[in-house]
Amino acid sequence: AAGQTGAGNASRLLVGNPHTFNATDSAPAVAIAEGLRGKVDKLVGGAFRVLTRQEMNDALQQYGYPKDAILSVMTTRVLAQALNSKAMVVSTLTKDQNGRYVVTSRFGGINDDAANVVTVTQAAGQGLADIGVRLGEGFAAALKAFPDAKACVDQSKTAPDKASAAGRKVLTAVPKHGLANFCLGKLAQG
Question: Is the pTM of this model over 0.85?
């Protein structure tokens, strides 16, 4: 079940429903989010505990929103903060000229200045949850490297050598890791 992989004390990670301006795409957005949430939950190991759809819906209702609400990126961030999430995945849902769904997702820490982005276009005959699974797969390396990227940021002021080593370790595995590149860039600026 979603939310069960991470250890009890693991940091929370919120996977929001993709934002869409088209009301008819709300149900597809929820289905895509469920696939994404399930895949991310399997990938995070003990680093995070993915908030379940039920936990999110309980919070949404507490704040006056309907279940499975489609929130803007900024409102999703506020919800993630209210739920004590340390990281989140936010997405936008559109359609291409052929009517296929295109989802762009961003994974990063709540207060981080950089993140990782994955975009997936629906393949012919591909189910909605499978779009979410593909998005999650796109984040696999970034999720695995996140603790080291975060260590780079966290140690940048107090232990710059350790921070630099952590950042370089991340870039060895994930050369385009947004947070690690940002951290190393800030370290280089001095």
Answer: yes
